[in-house]
Design goal:
Oligomer: single chain
CATH topology of the largest domain: Rossmann fold
Structural class: alpha/beta
Strand order of the largest sheet: 6-5-4-7-8-11
Largest sheet: 6 strands, mixed
Number of domains: 2
Order of helices and strands: HEHEHEEHEEHEHEHEEHEHHE
């Protein structure tokens, strides 16, 4: 991971100390089992199962289920109420648009959200899409200790999910950070992310160049996912078509979020610090 991204993580940590993750009521009253606690939990206290995740207390693994199915699951108890954040970052190359603040904003925003989660006494997992959805090394530590935040995948988040889906915590708060600029079915992606979550937030992170069509003239463009290059001539008709396509794509994501109960907001990478009130408006963050 390069020095610029490491600096952006530290900057995000500093911004994040001002905020706390806003925990939905269903998550605050749910069961995550991440606190082994001082109570053993009787049959009356038992509520549910979920898939084992690294860091879970081995005492709560149901070895009977493992012997029958080779599945590692842990028992959940109502007393064990530690809210959880699953942060899913788009690791495609389009998030590392050359000449923009986009990559640094991904790191800064991720660090801010993780720090806000810690302020709300949440556990966390940070997932990066690429060849599947993989957890960042050291993601349970402060963001300045994270590693391998590489934004260079040629796969879309949707494709990564098909290869290896993230093991998302049941009744956790889930946040997807992406530019959302890939062809596909927003509703299908959102349904998978929303399933079992206490709340889902979608943050569309765009560079100014993503929003504003380039000036008139010849322009060489590269497809971030395929690497293919081509030269196009930009005139007013092409600029309008680009703006219309972007508006239709944003509307499709907005419609999908409304249908599944997710909350969508759009931030501009170059104006990230000034855009943070938008995260309070959708009830993701609250002042610490």
């Amino acid at each position: 991971m390069d020095t610029a991204l490491r600096t952006a993580l530290r900057d995000g940590e500093q911004l994040g100390v001002r905020y706390a993750l806003q925990i939905p009521q269903v998550a605050a009253g749910g069961w995550t089992g991440s606190r082994s606690g001082r109570r053993s939990g009787s049959s009356i206290d038992f509520q549910d199962y979920r898939e084992y995740q690294p860091g879970d207390d081995l005492r709560f693994i149901d070895w009977g289920i493992y012997s029958r199915s080779d599945r590692l699951v842990v028992k959940l108890f109502r007393e064990e109420v530690t809210p959880h954040l699953d942060l899913i970052l788009d690791g495609s190359a389009s998030m590392n648009l050359a000449g923009t603040a986009k990559a640094g904003a991904v790191a800064q925003l991720a660090a801010l959200l993780a720090t806000a989660a810690a302020n709300a006494q949440c556990t966390q997992a940070v997932w990066l899409t690429g060849e599947g959805c993989q957890r960042l090394p050291n993601d349970t530590l402060p963001p300045s200790a994270w590693d391998k935040l590489d934004l260079n995948s040629r796969r879309t988040p949707e494709q990564a999910y098909d290869i290896l889906p993230p093991r998302l915590r049941r009744l956790g708060v889930r946040v997807l950070v992406s530019d959302l600029l890939w062809p596909g079915n927003p509703a299908a992606t959102l349904r998978r992310l929303r399933d079992g979550a206490a709340a889902l937030f979608v943050i569309q992170l765009l560079a100014r160049e993503d929003v504003t069509p380039p000036e008139h003239g010849n322009l060489r463009v590269a497809d971030s996912e395929t690497g293919e290059e081509s030269e196009i001539y930009i005139d007013s008709a092409v600029a309008k078509q680009y703006a219309d396509n972007l508006a239709r794509l944003q509307q499709a994501w907005d419609d999908g979020c409304r249908q599944c109960g997710a909350r969508l907001t759009t931030l501009i990478a170059e104006d990230l610090a000034a855009s943070l009130p938008a995260l309070q408006a959708v009830q993701l963050l609250t002042p610490a």
